[in-house]
Amino acid sequence: MNAPFFKFDYFNSDVSLIIAFVIGIAFGIALEKGGFGRATILASQFYFTNMRVLKVMFTAIVTAMLGLYFLSVIGFVDLSLVYLTQTNLLPMAVGGVIAGLGFIIGGYCPGTSMVAVATGKLDALVFVVGMIFGILVFGEMFPWIEEFFNSGYRGTITIPSYFNLSYGLVVFLVVLMAIGAFAAAEWGEKKMAAKTGKEIL
Amino acid sequence: MTSLTKWISNAFEKEEGQEHIYHEAKPFSNPYLVGIGLGLVLLSAFVIMGRGLGASGALSTVVAVTVNTIAPEHSAGNNFYSEYLGDGTANPLKDWLIFQTLGVLAGGFLSGTISHRVKKGVEKGPRISTKMRFVYAFIGGGLLGFGAKLARGCMSGQALSGGAVLNLGSWVFMMMVFVGGYAAAYFMRRQWI
Question: What is the ipTM of this complex?
Answer without folding.
Answer: 0.95
